[in-house]
Amino acid sequence: MIDAAGLRVMRAIADEGSFTAAALSLGYSQPAISQMVRRLETRTGTTLVERVGRSVRLTEAGAVLARHAGPVLSALDAAEEEVAAIAGLRSGRVRLMAFPSASATLVPKALAKVKAKHPGVSITFSEGEPRESLAALRAGECDLAVAFVYEGTDLGRGEEDLEPFVTTPLLDDEVLLAVPRSHPLATSTQVDMAALQDETWIAGCPRCRGHLLQLASTAGYVPDVAYETEDYVAVMGLIAEGLGIAVIPDLILKTVHHEDVVALPMTPASRRHIVAVTTPDLQRVPAVKATLDALVESAEAAAKWAAQSSGR
């Protein structure tokens, strides 16, 4: 009913004492001021300005609007400035979630890139497996999630409706076989999954356990999973002591090392796809887009380094 332009006119009339002077101060014509007052009176259903000779004075209702105009217009100006700052990446907030191995590799470099380019943008970060981060994204509790999916499965795994989301590919992460250095297969150049039927296995996160079961099923057996832990430092320790073997994505092996553990390529080859997930609307928010771009750059750098270190 009452717009910002009408409030500006009422304040100018109160300050200047006439339509002509108010028009001059606002850069409008005098007829335009008269028309705006009439429109505002129609909307409010009451007289706002009383004409007295060549001057005008505000009625009680007009004075109320003029009195409130200052704080309201100041708040609008402040809001416009804040929005302009966000749009111009002078400020902004992004809530990012990522799974543990990404939080140790891709995420730090991406956050550093955003901080260097846009120091006014604030990014908060929390760790969560894909199921948790996608649920948080759906609930409006995060703006951007870094998740992963193994080949042959979908990102939501039937747990989440992915229709509201948009995904950006970041990295294809090779899954390797980790064995003790003392294991007979430790000197192999490649290991067939079908040859591991009699091994004792160590399983990781729920998605990783599911992937192990799928690989073994394809090879024709059910793996003997004796140990389960999502702590990959513990997984490496168990392997090093000869208690079992595990399939571990290369990104994890880049962050958790053990001199008594050897990582080997497998056949058939296996990969997991790392993606960034957000919503179509959030993707257009400048701070979210800048963070997404930084994640893509970080992933490209990681892929280049991996190719160089492997000689590919």
TrEMBL record:
Gene3D superfamilies: Periplasmic binding protein-like II, Winged helix-like DNA-binding domain superfamily/Winged helix DNA-binding domain. GO terms for cellular component: cytosol. Residues 2-59 form the HTH lysR-type domain. CDD domains: PBP2_LTTR_like_6. GO terms for molecular function: DNA binding; DNA-binding transcription factor activity. Keywords: DNA-binding, Transcription, Transcription regulation. It comes from the Bacteria. InterPro entries: HTH-type_LysR_regulators, LysR_HTH_N, LysR_subst-bd, WH-like_DNA-bd_sf, WH_DNA-bd_sf. Belongs to the LysR transcriptional regulatory family. This is Transcriptional regulator. It comes from Knoellia aerolata DSM 18566.
